[in-house]
Amino acid sequence: MEAYLLDWANLLVRWVHLIAGIAWIGASFYFVMLDNSLKPPKKPEDAQRGVFGELWAVHGGGFYHSQKYLTGPKGEPLTQDLHWSKWEAYSTWLSGMGMMALIYWIGASSYLIDNSVMALSPTAAIAISIAFLVAGWVFYDLLCRNMIGKDGVLAAIVFVFVMVANYALHQVFSARGAYIHVGAMLGTMMAANVFFHIIPGQKKMVEQIRRGEEVDTMPGIVGKQRSVHNTYFTLPVLFIMISNHYPMTYAHANGWLVLGVLMMAGVLIRQFFVLRHRGQVKWWLPAAGSALILLLIVLMAPKPVDASGEQVSFATVRQIMDQRCVSCHAASPTFEGFAQPPKGVMLESAEQIAQHAVMSAQTVASGYMPLGNLTGITDEERQAIAIWFAQGARTQD
Fold it and tell me: Where are the domains of the chain?
């Protein structure tokens, strides 16, 4: 019953996370587009009122006229009700941390720890997880505080920092756990940017405007810096959110490098859209991002398995799966923490093994399965399954 309820909690929190993430990313993408599409105001009286730029748009059968004021309207009180874009960010982060707790902390033994990487107790793994997220934000925040106005250099240093953290995590956690922690670190930075800098800075500026004081522009500069970072973090974080469905990426021997290349591809593609909003179409950016992905596809292609040797019997394969796989992949799993077989894959009968032969061969050969190698499968057993599949995956000896 406990595992069943955890599955429901996972489903509902994941659903909330997806909805909140769509709202946050959608709003972020919209305002980046808006900010980069503004034209100087056409009416002189608008410029005198402090309008910095404006945009006319059409959507859903209506017309919209957006105007941007850098420090509020001039010569008139700021009495309008203001819409604040913040709860989308907070809800996304809170639901994401809920998923972290449900999957990677409660299920640390299955999803976070890989004893072949580092032997950790669940308590130690969870403590390292929390400490890493906190330390990642603190280090990033200190970098940004001390490099205002040095955007290019800061971007390079942040990327190096993320890659170092990415590599370090792969030396501590399971590959899947390492990937999700890189995403959680970036997501924490994004939400903390909103909570600690963007929203407080905007509130300070609003209060100064309403008191009729000269507006301090520094909060706006800092907020813009953090908002730009959030824009470029978005596509890498989105990839990491779906990466657990594709073990060919994180289960690769150089999974940390695979993640780094995919993150760079995401940044290049995002830069294309940012510049496109400004009227600068630079096709080399998505071309470069696509080239990086194609390069990975070629370099990561699995090596052909030599199937010319002795025939691997189905009885051998079935014995391996009964011993190493069926404790989870059964109608009623016996492995603690599983109320149902992962992804609905069952390997109890010859028909089921044949149905999932492709997935089994790929995930076992890559090292992804069994999770954290909790059942102790050997390299020889992995190779036997790979050869059996290459020989035609017959279920009759």
Answer: 2-33+86-299, 38-69, 314-390
